[in-house]
Design brief:
Elements (H helix, E strand, L loop, with lengths): L1 H31 L12 H21 L29 H7 L6 E3 L8 H7 L3 E3 L6 H13 L10
Parallel strand pairs: 1-2
Pfam family, one: Acyltransferase
GO molecular function: 1-acylglycerophosphocholine O-acyltransferase activity; lysophosphatidic acid acyltransferase activity
Subcellular location: Membrane
Length: 160
């Protein structure tokens, strides 16, 4: 009986996850469409609200479809309380759960990830701090960008 359930559930879950991924790509594309100063100016207004609500909700839904039920104990620190949010050990797709639960903050990511089809657009909508492994000044530039965002008095989202 469990094999039969797997035969039915696997394609159903895969179809739902694909649909959610394409919806996330669509909303991310709309949010960054014709954005001035792409990546150097924070998203504001309806663009930021759309990313916070839709991508957070879609990510939570995707994890629910995969069988994860996440419960939050306590209160997530607000942007004024913690402009930089640290999540550890930062090593798997579970980082997406933390992003969804904290309102889709900016993240630190390899610059190469931004050119990945579909995922690159979604990642770009989060306004990541891009780290270039080929640039010898990358570490210094990354620290400077994180510091600039942390001291922006709420203009940039939290950085995780």
């Amino acid at each position: 009986q469990s094999v039969l359930q797997g035969i039915i559930l696997l394609p159903l879950r895969a179809t739902c996850l694909t649909f959610i991924l394409l919806l996330a790509w669509l909303f991310a594309s709309i949010a960054i469409f014709c954005q001035r100063g792409r990546g150097s100016v924070p998203l504001k207004g309806w663009r930021r609200r759309m990313i916070r609500t839709t991508l957070s909700g879609l990510t939570r839904t995707a994890f629910f479809i995969m069988g994860f039920q996440v419960k939050v104990k306590g209160k997530v620190a607000s942007l004024p309380e913690a402009p930089i949010f640290v999540a550890a050990p930062h090593s798997s797709f579970f980082d997406a759960i933390v992003c969804a639960l904290t309102g889709m903050p900016s993240i630190v990511s390899r610059a190469e990830n931004l050119s990945t089809p579909v995922f690159g657009t979604i990642l770009s909508s989060l306004q990541p701090v891009a780290v270039s492994r080929q640039d010898p000044d990358s570490r210094k530039n990354t620290v400077a960008e994180i510091t600039k965002r942390a001291l922006s008095r709420g203009q940039w989202p939290q950085v995780i």
